Protein 1
Amino acid sequence: MEENKKNPKVIDLRVVAKKIWANKKLFYKVLPIVFVLSCFYIVSIPRYYTSETKLAPEMENSGAGGTLGSIAASFGFDLSDMQTSDAITPLLYPDLMEDNAFVVSILNVKVESQDEDIKSTYHDYLKDFQKVAWWTYPMSWLKSLLPKKEAPVGNKGKFDAYYLSKDEDDILNSARDNIKISIDKKTGVITINTKAQDPLICKILADSIKDKLQVFITDYRTNKARVDYEYYKQLTAEAKQDYERMRQRYGAFIDGNVNIALQSVRLKAEEMESEMELKLNNYNTLNSQMLAAKAKVQERTPAFTVIKGAAVPIKPAGPKRMIFVAGILILACFTTAFYLVRKDLHFSF
């Protein structure tokens, strides 16, 4: 008994190999069946393409850097983001895909397939032109037989990005799955990845999102400056009107009293001239402030550098059919081998 405990039972690989070789005909039956079924399955799944573009927006910060900035960057922290004057840091730009209004603006993009058979909005493309696996058709048919529950249909009469029907919400989620926005914390480079079943649509989508992201960043960065400019523009226009009215009144008064040498007339003319000069000075001051606010808009407008433009993909990104079939065949080999030697694997220590 003690010898048995000291000498545990081990697996004899030669016995296992002989047993597998003796039953090799089982592999001849299993592997062709697995190959055909795996090929049939993976071929039924529609292929998709991916495209990528990289964008580097101008960063506004207070110049954080030096030795401390380099040390922080080595640990994955960007001090420039912490000291930016913007309320929305670049790290939050990828979260735009969580906003329904931003995604809805993407759904309105016009897309066109490479073979020119599809010309529609991205919304209609997701709704009407998506290829699906064959087994989804009987599943859809079975679902259609089940009693339907009344679901919210969205805001009646008006489209509201934040009050959608179930079908519209599903389309928005599909768009989110096909679009990924990420940012490198160290370099600030924004990467946009898109996925679609058509290569040209994939490229159009990446370019459109890049443009919309540029518009969003520009609008946000220049928002306060544009508000200030419009404010001073309005004040300047009002000041100019006041000056023009006063100038006309002064001119009319002088023309009407050109031959009158009364002291009261001369004092009134001097009073009106002084008031006209005040309004002119007010107009010139506001006009200078308006021009400064206009220059501030340009100063706050960020510059963008496209590091990598979106290209029309040549080869599909997935599914990887050969890798999938090879993986399934390897799994089938191991499963069949385990089935043959399962009794020999029972050993105790």
Protein 2
Amino acid sequence: MENRKTALSRRIGRAAAILFLTAAPAIGASQTIRPGDIWRDDRTLRIQAHGGGILRYRGVYYWFGEDRGQDLDRDKRYVSCYSSKDLVNWTFRNDVLKLSDPENFGPTWVLERPKVFYNPKTKKFVMYMHIDGPLPGETGGYKLARVGVATSDRVDGDYRYLRSFRPLGHESRDIGQFIDDDGAPYLIFEDRPFGFRIATLSADYLTVEKEVCLIPLHLEGGAVAHYQGLYYAIGSALTGWNPNPNKYATAKSLAGPWSEFRDIAPPETKTYGSQSTMMLKVVGRKATTVIFMGDIWKPHSQWDSRYLWMPLEIGGGKLWLPEPKPWTLNVKTGRAAILK
């Protein structure tokens, strides 16, 4: 009798294991992203990674962004970090930066659009961020126009704030990051008097070394991708929290010359209510997908701001953001499919 019970128990255990393996999504398997919906992490909490960027490190994607949760200390600014192997299911790792006013900027100082680079020579993770607020003796307004730098020995560790500065002496508001196919790191920043700048980082990644180009158009939310021999740059007009028609241009070299800027979506949609923050290139075994990462800002309830991620139609000098619909992504094959 005991042997029969043991055998039955083993069969039930094997069946349960098979059911679990069947139900659990395989790493790399196609899973659904739903633009504009509430996106939850492993704790079932809303993902708080606004104005964010993605770093791929040792086969894992790390998403950094502004944590604008409702229960945070209002005297601090927070940068969150999440990890994923499939870009769909995200695990909260840490609020990697919990920063009180670091340089006596005043109570209304802001920290926005954090982006993290990994330096393979120094083995350091380097975070750039937009630091802003009023000038000394003034109130309100984005007048500081600086970038801040922080570092960590671990991708999801506690980052140590180092300093802020104006890159190459220029104003810097919205920032973006770009890592070329050869691993070279670039900072993208909006210089309000002049336009949209792309610059190289120093060998230790701790400062901006050299300007590559100035695109003389007033754009923020800058993002760049390299696809099939062309560089694509995206930017948003200067309308504050309000969405507008984002535009793109192309060039054979980061130094230009760049084409004229054209709409990435029907202009009346105002980029479907979103603003660009990054273009993420996913290179798989069978295809390459470039993802538009955008924020749907809710200025009066920032904790409820959403994300619009969609695979771009890109190639041959053309770029188009399809109407947001649920879509699937397989990071192993690199294939994306929009669901009908």
Protein 3
Amino acid sequence: MDAKLRRSMLFIPGNNPGMLQNGGVFGADSVILDLEDAVAPTEKDAARFLIAHALKTVDYGSSEKVIRINPLDTFAAEDIKAVVPYGPDAILVPKVESAGDIHTAVSMIAAAELPGQVPVKIIALLETPRGILEAYHIAMADPRVVALALGAEDYTAGLGAMRTKTGTEIFTARTTLVNAAAAADVQSIDTPYTDANDEEGLLADTELAKQLGFKGKLSINPRQIDTIHAVFNPSISDIDWAEQVIAAMSKAAAEGSGVASLNGKMVDLPIVNRAERILRLARLLGLIEGAE
């Protein structure tokens, strides 16, 4: 799995020079410079120019630089030619429905990359019933794919379902996407919570996403980032449990036993792997000491 943290992925309109200029100050793990929904058709060319300029001149700090292009059957080719040579970290491809869509995107991106350029990664945004059904094949389509993300607004429209804050109507899509991503060893990114003024709703929705196995969440407003990070960061109790698991396993190994137990429960390999992931994240965030 790609090691990049993507707890928060913040959309920034590609036609907003002020937000593009200040995108690095919000503290998001990834900033998504948006050429699709946030930009009217008449402003696409200007937005491409602004994003290319931002990639050249703006310091986004530790934030991953992601560009959401337009769908492959609309302006994607123009978008990719305009921005890929300026070194984005990843392209967010919307409305992906098949492995073939990924192959098309890879061909476009590879053709636009400069000699010696670090290969641009792909995050597939699944927004249709077919995309959800094809999630595993999409994730496995090419090594450039590092994450699957859910776009629930278009997905529920495709179902003919009412979008609600409780998210009952997207439960199947969420679990299908998370399972496909885990099976393909890529990250899973949850849909945005679209009411930027409902902090309690955001907290509950993010907690559910983490419980289901998502590794991060799309965001539409900088005010959402702190809440999202608070949920996805390991808690003190998480870290304590993980350290106990590793200690129990080390003790068993020192005693020549391949089996460890903690509080009367057997510690097997999946438990150890989960504990190691928690500690790795805690070290990356500076919550505990130790080298990565």
